[in-house]
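**Backbone description:**
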Amino acid sequence: MTCNSDARKAYKAQARADIRVKFWSTMGAVILEMVPMVLIAMIMQIGIRGLSEYPTIEELLRLYKYLGIYVIAAFLIGEPITFGAKHYFVSRARGEESSASQVLICFTSLRKYLTSLKLSLCILVRSLGWLALLYAVVFVTAIPAFLMNDSILLVVYMIVWIAILIVLTLFVVVKVRRYDGAYICMIDTPDASVWEAVKACAPIFKGHNWELLIFDLSFLLWELASVCTCGIVGIYTTAYMEIAFVHYFDDLCGKKIQQQPPEIPEL
């Protein structure tokens, strides 16, 4: 099954069913994933409070200090929690035993903790490669605009340049997005190296880049609802998208959608 309209509906319908079976546990997992990052961001905001419009050197040093603390904390705490949340979403999608405590699974052993950090760094390096390509193309193709004297030709060139930029940006976004599959590959093959897990994503999504983009865009209204409700709906949307993505990924790998057993939903 490819990710056509009917397939997307199937992935999303099963994701909703997965959530209904353990609704509060799933919402708790998402909240447990979000809270540490919110607290870290609040600490940073408190630390840089009171910066003037034209900050002094002391204020800039304070800004850089708390920015550094935020980046380090987000990496050392946020990334293991993100990988732990992926464990929960995979378990929920596949009908396996799942608990919100899985979000903290990477803190239960040093090996799992270090794996989560190495996997995050590997994904970052791969993603930066695509982003570097995007910025290089933008820079090189923008140079002719500064050499044109004809205003009409310049307008035509800029229109074409923007159109190409939009297409290229979407292409890079999809290429980076597919690395989310590396988390699932790592969960399925815990003894593999992180590089192998990340590299495995390319053949899985080969020929499915456009499908992946449409898949993500199909959640646009949910994302807008999250923004309009200051993130409240986002708690459900996060679980919805993550579990549906697992079903999509499993289907690409040749696995059938795991139908949830007829359990009694949580109250």
About this structure: Residues 223 and 234 are 7 Å apart (CA to CA). The chain has a mean pLDDT of 89. The chain has eleven helices and no strands.
